[in-house]
Amino acid sequence: MENITIDVIKIFSIGTLSFLFAFLVTPTFANFLYKKKLWKKRAKEETIDGNKASFFLKFHEKNEKETPRLGGILIWFSVILLAICIHFFSLFFDFSWLKKLNFLSRDQTWLPLFTLFSASIVGLFDDLLQVLEFPKEITRKVKKGRVEGLSLRYRIFLVGLVGFVGAWWFYFRLGQDAIYIPFVGEIFFGALFIPFFILVMIAVYSGGVIDGIDGLSAGVFSSIFTAYGVIALFQGQVNLSAFCFAVVGSVIAFLWFNIPPARFYMGETGVIGLTATLTVVAFLTGAVAVLPVIAILLFITSGSVIIQLLSKKFLKKKFFLAAPLHHHFEAKGWPRYKITMRFWIISWFASFFGVAIHFLA
User: Fold this and answer.
1) CB of 226 within 8 A of CB of 296?
2) What pLDDT score was predicted for residue 140?
C-alpha cells in the first residue's frame, strides 16, 4: 500500500510540474509567436473533404489569420525538458525525493520520449513551411511567395516512417509480435506485427483532424493520456505512467490558454507528436485493443471524413454537411463551445470505459 501511495504521489507530482513549467513559459512563448507573426497568412478555402466551406470561412477566417500555429511545441518541449532535467539533477544532487521523481528509464520511457520528439519535429517542419516566408525559387508549390506545407501524402509517409522505427524496436528489440484482445486472449502476428503497428499509427494520426475548434483536441488528448497513465500505473509501469501524466500536465497548460478564443493553435507539431506517442504508449501497455474505445473520438472524427469522401465519390452527394464531424455540427448551427464540451464529456466517459474493459477482461 505504501509503494502504491508513493507511485501515485510521483505521477501526480510529475503532472503538476509539467503543468507549472508549461504554464509559466507560455506568456513568453506566446509573445514570441505573435512577434514573429507565425500564423497562416491565408485562411482555409475548403474543408478536408474538399468542400468550398463558406460557413468555415465565416466562422474561422479571422482567427486563422491572426492566431499563431506551433503551439504544440509547448507540449512536447515541456515533457522532454522536464524528463531530462529531473534525470540529470538526480545524478548530481543526492536527494532521495528527486531520485524518486526521475521517470527516465530505458525499458519504459526512452521509446515514447524519442517518438514524441521525432514525430513532433516532423510536424514542426510542416508548420514552419506554412507560416514562414520563402523565396519563390525554393519550391514549385508556392502561392504569392508562400509555401503551402507538406501534402497529406508526404505527412502520412513521414508518420509511417516514424511508425516503422517504432515497429522495428518493438519487434526486434522487445520481441513483441502479438496483441492482447480483451475476452479473447493474445493474437500473434509474427512479422506482420510491423505493418500492423505502422497502420495503427497512421490510423491514430488520421484522427488528428479533430484539432479544428479552440480547445477541442487538447481536452480530448488529456482524457486519453490520463486513461493510459492509469493503465500503466496499475500494471506497475510507474515511469510510463508518470510520462503520460507529464503529457497531460503540459496539454492542460496548453488548454488553459486555448479556452476560446485560442491564444495559439496546436499545429501539426502537436498533433503528429501526440498521436504517434499515443500509439507507442498503447503498445507498451498492451492496451492496443481498447485504443478505439479510449480514443473513440479520434476514430469517429477520422471516419467521418472517410464516409464523406466515399459518399461524394460513389453516391455523388454529401453524407454530412461538412467533415470532420465537428464542422458538421458547426454547419448545423451548434455553438463551438457546445461541440467542444460535449466532445470532452464523451471522451472522458470513453476513457473510463476503455480502462474498465482492459482490466475486467
Assistant:
1) no
2) 46
